[in-house]
Write a sequence for this structure.
């Protein structure tokens, strides 16, 4: 069992220091844009995932739109976008099982030789769902579960992939041959996370379940069971959840044997938790403080969560706090066209780089096994966009 590193020292005040672009470039790898290959407007956002600096994927649709004036309108359905980054260039691939119009909705990298996608022949009224696996050289496609929309849960690992919808009673598990099993739960699944083929968590109304590679172990939530939906596993037998209680909120932790209520500062609304991240041996939670607005950063000190100060919250994007494999914590923010990147150095936030794209349109993605990052999504123009500091 992996446990949190426990520290009894309350985190010190954190200051935010801006640095110039020149200073940031001297200390940190420069960001470079790596634009995907040309796609026709209008582009439809799909998904992005990376297994390494030499194995990243961006998917979606292109060429969607209409001409004319209602009721004389001709609508164009999108054609699929499926592109792979090999560390130096992008390659466009044909979406398996789709001959014309279509959309690639999800992508997940399970290993260097295993990437999974979920695609459809129509973004709204699908008559064909395609689940496919790339083995490094060819695609194999299988019968997909009828989802009708982008999967809320689509997570691959070296042995297969999980597929499911938020609120559904079932999750689907596929192995690398395409064989599938259906896993049924006592209520709708409102939270799911997988850390590998032998470590997955699912939660919903009045239950939380852990998959060990063979079977599910299910417990009921402690107290007030109908309010526990936000679930974040951070270890094989360690999971955190948010719940609403009379007069406030709290975090609860499963340590492998029991649930423990963990207090949070008065007025902090953990029900609006955006991210739970483990970095540098500590657990960090980005959330909001009531009517004051703006994201807040909490740190677990071993017994309770404390609110840090100096977090660059003014224009930070609440979805863009990430940890890299070397244990460092980053946050991105900015406006509608460009962004910035800050890093926590000890007790001080340092702005280390300007990002080429808006953090809200092109989120951050840690590159597994490295201290580097991707930024991927859309540019201000709407075109697919990507950048990295790994080159």
């Amino acid at each position: 069992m992996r446990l949190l590193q426990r520290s009894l020292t309350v985190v010190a005040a954190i200051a935010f220091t801006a640095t110039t672009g020149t200073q940031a470039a001297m200390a940190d790898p420069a960001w470079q844009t790596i634009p995907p290959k040309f796609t026709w407007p209008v582009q439809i956002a799909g998904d992005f995932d990376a297994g390494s600096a030499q194995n990243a994927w961006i998917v979606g649709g292109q060429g969607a739109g209409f001409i004319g004036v209602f009721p004389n309108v001709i609508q164009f359905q999108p054609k699929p976008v499926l592109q792979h980054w090999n560390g130096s260039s992008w390659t466009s691939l044909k979406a398996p099982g789709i001959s014309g119009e279509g959309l690639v909705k999800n992508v997940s990298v399970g290993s260097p030789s295993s990437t999974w996608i979920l695609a459809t022949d129509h973004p709204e009224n699908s008559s064909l769902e395609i689940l496919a696996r790339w083995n490094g050289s060819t695609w194999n496609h299988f019968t997909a579960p009828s989802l009708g929309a982008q999967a809320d849960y689509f997570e691959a690992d070296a042995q297969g992939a999980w597929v499911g919808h938020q609120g559904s009673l079932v999750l689907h598990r596929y192995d690398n041959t395409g064989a599938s099993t259906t896993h049924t739960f006592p209520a709708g699944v409102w939270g799911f996370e997988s850390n590998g083929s032998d470590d997955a968590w699912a939660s919903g109304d009045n239950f939380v379940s852990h998959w060990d590679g063979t079977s599910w172990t299910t417990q009921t939530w402690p107290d007030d069971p109908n309010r526990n939906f936000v679930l974040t596993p951070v270890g094989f037998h360690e999971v955190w959840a948010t719940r609403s209680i009379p007069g406030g909120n709290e975090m609860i932790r499963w340590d492998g044997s029991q649930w423990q209520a963990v207090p949070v500062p008065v007025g902090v609304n953990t029900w609006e938790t955006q991210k739970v991240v483990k970095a540098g041996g500590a657990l960090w939670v980005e959330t909001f403080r009531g009517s004051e607005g703006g994201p807040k950063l909490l740190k677990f000190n071993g017994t309770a969560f404390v609110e840090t100060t100096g977090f660059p919250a003014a224009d930070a994007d609440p979805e863009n706090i990430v940890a890299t494999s070397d244990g460092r914590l980053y946050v991105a923010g900015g406006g509608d066209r460009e962004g910035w990147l800050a890093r926590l150095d000890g007790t001080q936030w340092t702005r280390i780089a300007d990002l080429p794209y808006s953090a809200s349109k092109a989120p951050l993605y840690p590159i597994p096994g490295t201290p580097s990052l991707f930024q991927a999504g859309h540019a201000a123009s709407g075109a697919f966009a990507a950048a990295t500091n790994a080159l």
